[in-house]
Amino acid sequence: MRTTYAAIIAWLQDWLRDINWVHFATIPVFTGVIGWLINWSGLVMLFSPVRFHGVRIPGMRELASVLPRKIQEVPGVLQGGIGWQGIIPARAAKMGSIAVDKAIAKLGTPAEFYQQLEPDRIAEHIVTVFRPEIPELVDQVMVREHPRLWRDLPRPVREAVVDRVQAQLPSVVGRVTTEIGVHIDQLLDPKIMVIDHFQKNPALVVRIFRDFGQRELNLMVAFGFVFGFLLGIPVAVVDSIFGLWWLLPLLGVVVGWVTNALGMWLIFEPPEPRTYFGIRHQGLFLRRQDQAAEVYARIIAEDVITLERIGDFLLDGPRGDRTRQMLATALRPAIDQAAGPARAAVRVAMGPRRFDTIRDSVAREAVGRTLTPFKDPAFSQRQAEKIRVLIARRTKELPPRDFVEMMRAAIKEDEWMLYAHGAVMGLAGGFLHLAIFGVS
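Above: the chain's sequence. Below: its structure in token form.
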């Protein structure tokens, strides 16, 4: 036993005496700098460019279908191009889908979102905006459907018809907003809204990460040097022992891969606080979930699920025809009431078919104008605060694992590209060190 110990001491003394300290000391410095560059350029790969930059290659789209799945995941390949798009903006639609499944669907139903917007306030706003348009609407429909009758009516009678329609307006609009609330779960699909908006605005997804996570992302870059430097110490030891030319580039691959993996782990893992060697640790994003929730809620309320976009979706989205039909059905009885006591006489004078045609025309014309105030940006911005409060409260209540899943799931399957990028840079760093300092 004593002989073995003495042999080890002798070997260590020989190793320390023969070691090239410049060569040895520069390896951790190199791996530290490379680690910093890996994490810095990894962030660039995550976020930039927002749109695909590259060249389209004829036949590439067809070839992509037979390539390995991992290659197909590289931005642009399935679209028939070679180039790059930031991983996060390239997966904007997927992140939108996951955000809905993991968070927004748990934050509230469409009915809850709609109630937060205070339908009574919406109705008041619609009446205020729509009332001045009533004379033009009635005149337009009557001139189109029954021009002679409308022309022959005395002016006071025409004005009385308009006044009666305007008097009915608050009850009509109240019925419309109530009807929307009753059927909102069938008319509004937040998932389609979010996916479509994220896909058209990938920069918004980048903004979500940067607005509440820039501090953690900067810290990850700084830790790239720390991780690289610490990993470089055993690399220097192994390289000085074996002195093989190919060993440093090979170990550089390992260091590059591990540095990126540690950076991602630092941000996202573990979701729940854990203690390692007496030190309490939790993923950096998770430590500020409450602050992140406020930022996330503000972006969603101001840019994604807004009253303006809800109005667009209700009228022009995939279920717009159903919305228009439902609102027209809700408006018809109110138009009947607007005719007042003279309704029966007017119906006889015009004929039942003509009267019903005019009533239906007014209802159809009124549908689009009734929801036009939904698209008022100023009013939408005032109402956004209600949605922001709801989303912020519910996001803070999310279990940490669901919160981190919402932020990470969209890029998780693409993280291998970041790790591979780190490995390539580590390999290049190893060869660069060899070129400058030679073999140990």
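Residues 95-199+292-401 form one domain.
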